[in-house]
């Protein structure tokens, strides 16, 4: 059952909403950073205004002789103009107090010393007033006009609290309005330049993934020269390459199916011809006896080629299933399958230690070794070595690049023509008349293990090396 195609996120869960929310949060954070000093300055200005009234009162007290008393009507007018309950004037160790006739009972007092104007103190005082509820008595302290004189104004904190609440509410509404307008403008700008092009890219990828063989879905890039334009052009190029590859793959698959059917029928025909040739070979005619071996050899080659093509076509892309495998036993089994066990003319030497184990797929790695060993055996069988005994050796080494398993022979080596397309199916072959499928399959299986199959440079003989990144484990000897 085919999975349902992926869908783009809804407008309320997409990138645009996240961007708009992020912009508003950032703008509000900036507004808060500006609001705190602004609130502190507003409170300081308000307190300074009330303190000026106290300074005026202190000036009046200085102008009046000590033996005289200020009229109650004048003092009440001064206090009410400042909204204060009392004003204290301190100079030269003496204090003078004027207060309302009907002054309320003093409550918990909080001091606002206007001689301390550092930002931390001002901001802390503003926040303290804003969150206090305004039920305390505010004691405002400041310097008078004369040297070493102080003026204190005592008043309810409620008026200042209400002023700060109103100011904060206005700033909040204004900040929200500015944040919304700014975020909306930035959102529209970024949406046009980034979000919508990115959404079109996403829509195109989703649609092309569902129908990769539909050429009309290939991205049409714009003329932009920024990152979005580069992404559009690269996506269009990738989709074009993928579209071309898929069409070629379909053609090759159809062609391969047709070839497989032809080879299958050809193999059956060749098998029948081989059976007839075996019967012909039993005749006593000298010409038949001379030509029959050639005919049988030719038919064997044709059948072997047909079988190799069929095997390559049936080759599956199953991922390897690594397990702990004793390497020496794996090589011995591969040598037996390659026809080297008990060979009358070729010496087969397995130099790998019995305590070495690798994490590989035993079936796939055996097939790699069989193909390499069989090629080496066939190369030695086709050539006569002067003064040397044909030999195939398998050895093992471990270095910085990983595990290196070498399969080498002392034959005449490969011709330069065979080296050019050594691992290309149907083109590269290590021997005359071969298909090159064995080396192609061996390379694919090795790369499936994350390794490499390479031909080593040698002056004499041939050496193939299987390089694997697998960690080597040494088995404990039996006691």
Automatic annotation (TrEMBL):
<dbReference type="InterPro" id="IPR004358">
    <property type="entry name" value="Sig_transdc_His_kin-like_C"/>
</dbReference>
<protein>
    <recommendedName>
        <fullName>histidine kinase</fullName>
        <ecNumber>2.7.13.3</ecNumber>
    </recommendedName>
</protein>
<keyword id="KW-0808">Transferase</keyword>
<keyword id="KW-0067">ATP-binding</keyword>
<dbReference type="GO" id="GO:0005524">
    <property type="term" value="F:ATP binding"/>
</dbReference>
<keyword id="KW-1133">Transmembrane helix</keyword>
<keyword id="KW-0812">Transmembrane</keyword>
<dbReference type="InterPro" id="IPR003594">
    <property type="entry name" value="HATPase_dom"/>
</dbReference>
<dbReference type="Pfam" id="PF02518">
    <property type="entry name" value="HATPase_c"/>
</dbReference>
<keyword id="KW-0547">Nucleotide-binding</keyword>
<keyword id="KW-0418">Kinase</keyword>
<dbReference type="GO" id="GO:0004673">
    <property type="term" value="F:protein histidine kinase activity"/>
</dbReference>
<dbReference type="InterPro" id="IPR005467">
    <property type="entry name" value="His_kinase_dom"/>
</dbReference>
<dbReference type="InterPro" id="IPR050980">
    <property type="entry name" value="2C_sensor_his_kinase"/>
</dbReference>
<feature type="domain" description="Histidine kinase">
    <location>
        <begin position="261"/>
        <end position="472"/>
    </location>
</feature>
<keyword id="KW-0472">Membrane</keyword>
<dbReference type="InterPro" id="IPR036890">
    <property type="entry name" value="HATPase_C_sf"/>
</dbReference>
<feature type="transmembrane region" description="Helical">
    <location>
        <begin position="171"/>
        <end position="195"/>
    </location>
</feature>
<feature type="transmembrane region" description="Helical">
    <location>
        <begin position="20"/>
        <end position="42"/>
    </location>
</feature>
């Amino acid at each position: 059952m085919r999975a349902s195609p992926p869908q783009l996120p809804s407008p309320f869960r997409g990138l645009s909403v996240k961007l708009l929310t992020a912009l508003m949060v950032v703008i509000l954070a900036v507004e808060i950073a500006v609001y705190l000093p602004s609130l502190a300055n507003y409170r300081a200005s308000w307190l300074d205004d009330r303190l000026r009234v106290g300074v005026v009162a202190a000036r009046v007290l200085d102008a009046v002789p000590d033996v005289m008393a200020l009229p109650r009507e004048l003092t009440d007018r001064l206090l009410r103009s400042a909204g204060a309950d009392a004003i204290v004037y301190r100079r030269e160790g003496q204090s003078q107090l004027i207060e309302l006739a009907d002054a309320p009972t003093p409550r918990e007092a909080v001091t606002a010393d206007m001689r301390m104007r550092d930002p931390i103190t001002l901001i802390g005082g503003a926040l303290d007033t804003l969150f206090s509820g305004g039920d305390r008595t505010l004691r405002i302290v400041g310097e008078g006009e004369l040297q070493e004189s102080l003026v204190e104004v005592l008043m309810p904190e409620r008026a200042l609290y209400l002023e700060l609440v109103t100011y904060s509410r206005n700033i909040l509404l204004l900040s929200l309005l500015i944040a919304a307008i700014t975020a909306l403008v930035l959102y529209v700008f970024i949406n046009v330049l980034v979000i919508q092009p990115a959404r079109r890219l996403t829509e195109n990828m989703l649609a092309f993934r569902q129908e990769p063989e539909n050429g009309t879905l290939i991205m049409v890039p714009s003329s932009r020269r920024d990152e979005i334009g580069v992404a559009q052009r690269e996506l269009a190029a990738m989709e074009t390459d993928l579209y071309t590859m898929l069409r070629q793959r379909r053609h090759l698959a159809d062609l391969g199916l047709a070839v497989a059917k032809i080879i299958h029928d050809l193999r059956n025909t060749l098998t029948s011809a081989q059976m007839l040739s075996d019967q012909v070979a039993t005749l006593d005619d000298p010409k038949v006896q001379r030509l029959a071996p050639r005919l049988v050899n030719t038919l064997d080659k044709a059948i072997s080629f047909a079988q190799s093509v069929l095997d390559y076509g049936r080759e599956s892309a199953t991922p390897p299933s690594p397990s702990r495998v004793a390497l020496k036993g794996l090589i011995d089994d591969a040598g037996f399958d390659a026809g080297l066990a008990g060979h009358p003319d070729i010496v087969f030497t397995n130099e790998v230690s019995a305590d070495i184990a690798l994490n590989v797929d035993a079936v796939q790695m055996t097939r790699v070794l069989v193909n390499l060993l069989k090629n080496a055996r066939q190369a030695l069988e086709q050539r006569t070595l002067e003064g040397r005994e044909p030999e195939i050796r398998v050895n093992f080494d471990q270095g910085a690049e990983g595990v290196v398993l070498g399969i080498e022979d002392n034959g005449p080596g490969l011709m330069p023509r065979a080296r050019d397309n050594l691992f290309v199916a149907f083109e590269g072959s290590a021997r005359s008349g071969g298909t090159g499928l064995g080396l192609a399959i061996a390379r694919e299986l090795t790369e499936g293990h994350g390794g490499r199959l390479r031909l080593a440079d040698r002056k004499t003989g041939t050496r193939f090396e299987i390089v694997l990144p697998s960690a080597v484990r040494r088995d404990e000897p039996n006691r």
